[in-house]
């Protein structure tokens, strides 16, 4: 993690309470493993982000005490979801927390379910995002969004959830089109998604929980 310059990025990562997270994964993982996988996804995501050369810090927005403690132990700043009005309100709250101390910070929102995330690939996405006031990266299905950025003095205007790719395009954000950044696009909602992430190479915490089950 680079902290030498205010021009580096602050990333905001939202996380539902683990008891509610990744409900569609229950069919593949079962009720007991599902919340543990949700935490492992977040841990591997945050750990990769903190090892990205362009990242100054990470703010995790969550009301889950166990997840908050685990992610704080990795080096993230954890803030409670005070708005409690859904994903986009949580992201806006996280950006305010960043910019309360650094009003012109470059900020980006990133999904918490990127268990194959590679720091080098995230670096490429962040470098591309610097060229635009607001930019985003579509998910692997090219329907949703895994990454949304805003430059200094620019509002993030998050519109995550469902078919968010089109909403972000309509809002004026520029779509980042890069080859070779599959790990930044591979979010995980289902067992099939998790197997695709496995093919890319799971982070250590997700691998430790999933591979003994998956075989």
TrEMBL record:
Cross-referenced Pfam families: NTP_transf_3
Residue intervals of the MobA-like NTP transferase domain: 43-135
Source organism superkingdom: Bacteria
Catalytic reactions on record: phosphoenolpyruvate + GTP + H(+) = enolpyruvoyl-2-diphospho-5'-guanosine + diphosphate
Alphabetical list of InterPro entries matching this protein: CofC, MobA-like_NTP_Trfase, Nucleotide-diphossugar_trans
Record: residues binding phosphoenolpyruvate: 145, 161, 164
An example molecular function term from Gene Ontology annotations: phospholactate guanylyltransferase activity
Enzyme class at the top of the EC tree: transferase
Keywords: GTP-binding, Nucleotide-binding, Nucleotidyltransferase, Transferase
Pathway where it operates: Cofactor biosynthesis; coenzyme F420 biosynthesis
Enzyme Commission code: 2.7.7.105
Function, as annotated: Guanylyltransferase that catalyzes the activation of phosphoenolpyruvate (PEP) as enolpyruvoyl-2-diphospho-5'-guanosine, via the condensation of PEP with GTP. It is involved in the biosynthesis of coenzyme F420, a hydride carrier cofactor.
Family classification: Belongs to the CofC family.
PANTHER family given in the database record: 2-PHOSPHO-L-LACTATE GUANYLYLTRANSFERASE
Database matches in HAMAP family: CofC
Protein name (Swiss-Prot/TrEMBL): Phosphoenolpyruvate guanylyltransferase
Protein source organism: Streptomyces wedmorensis
Lineage, opening ranks: Bacteria, Bacillati, Actinomycetota, Actinomycetes, Kitasatosporales
């Amino acid at each position: 993690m680079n902290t030498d310059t205010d021009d580096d990025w602050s990333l905001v990562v939202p996380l539902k309470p683990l008891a509610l997270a990744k409900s569609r994964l229950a069919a593949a993982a079962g009720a007991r493993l599902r919340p543990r996988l949700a935490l492992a996804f977040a841990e591997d995501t945050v750990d990769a982000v903190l090892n990205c050369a362009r990242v100054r810090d990470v703010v995790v927005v969550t009301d889950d005490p166990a997840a908050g403690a685990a992610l704080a132990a990795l080096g993230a700043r954890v803030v409670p979801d005070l708005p409690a009005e859904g994903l986009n309100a949580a992201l806006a709250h996280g950006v305010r927390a960043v910019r309360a101390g650094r009003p012109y910070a470059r900020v980006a929102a990133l999904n918490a379910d990127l268990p194959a995330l590679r720091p080098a690939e995230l670096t490429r996405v962040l470098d591309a995002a610097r060229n635009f006031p607001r930019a985003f990266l579509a998910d692997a299905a090219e329907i949703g969004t895994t990454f949304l950025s805003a430059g200094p003095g620019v509002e993030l205007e998050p519109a995550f959830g469902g078919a968010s790719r089109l909403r972000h395009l309509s809002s004026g954000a520029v779509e980042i089109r890069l080859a070779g950044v599959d790990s930044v696009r591979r979010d995980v909602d289902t067992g099939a998604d998790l197997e695709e992430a496995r093919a890319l190479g799971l982070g250590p915490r997700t691998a430790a929980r999933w591979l003994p089950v998956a075989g």
